[in-house]
Amino acid sequence: MKLIKKLAAGITTCIILSGLTFSSVQAHMMVAQHGTINLVDDGAFMVLSLPVSAFHFLDNSLIELDDSDAADGSDADAADGSDDADKKIGNISMSNLSIDQNNDGKLSSDELQQHRQQISRIILQRVSLSDATGPLPLQGLIISLASHGSPKQPSDQIIVMGRFKLSNSQDPLIFENQLFGKSFSEQVIDMSVTRQENKQKQVFQVSANAPSHRLFPAK
Question: Quick one: signal sequence residues (predicted)?
Fold first, then answer.
């Protein structure tokens, strides 16, 4: 039985990686403020370009923590009566919530590595695909700089890739993104969705004023 479970896990991992490998090709060509979702069997493969400025001082996004986060030290910090800006929420310092440390409007590879955990946490909380039961799990999250031509060149956009696990590819789905930047051009993201089963396609926009959209609504 253990062997069967390991084989099944290995197959699932291969499927996720193969889908993300395909998505990584899209990521290299992804235009700023654009995203794609590819519905294939029981997975929704997402590639999304998000502005770096959307990740500045998002302290509210870190307030709702699960039990494991609360157990790693936040209670201990509160117990000493410290109310200063250096306190921690989970493993993240409240005094270091801006991922763009040199304030140049871009993210470097060093800044990305230093804040990868923080960025991942915010994405998992603010980017979602939901069915009737609620938000679907986002697996295999990959974050990289949108630096075309040079992967180490600082960028004002972050490429996000991952796979939402679907219960049924035909279920009604709602996509939501709550990460928008400071400039006017960063307030809208153009999305393209494809359902491979019947080659159905849909294009739409999400914005700071309308962050969610229903996929393939019934006509």
Answer: 1-27
Residue count (the chain): 219
Distance CA 145, CA 119 (A): 12
Q: Is the distance from CB of 164 to CB of 136 less than 8 angstroms?
A: yes
pTM, rounded to two decimals: 0.72
Judging by beta carbons within 10 Å of its beta carbon (0-12, 13-18, 19+), is residue 204 exposed, middle or buried? middle
Query: H-helix or E-strand containing 78?
Result: helix 75-79
Least confident of 82-86, 133-137, 163-167: 82-86
Q: Where are the domains of the chain?
A: 2-58+106-215, 60-96
Angle at alpha carbon of residue 160, lines to 72 and 114, rounded to 5°: 45
Give SS3 for 73: helix
Q: What is the pLDDT of residues 146-204, one digit of tens each?
A: 876 566 789 999 999 999 999 876 789 999 999 999 999 999 999 999 998 888 999 99
Q: Which two tokens stand for residue 56?
A: 């500045």
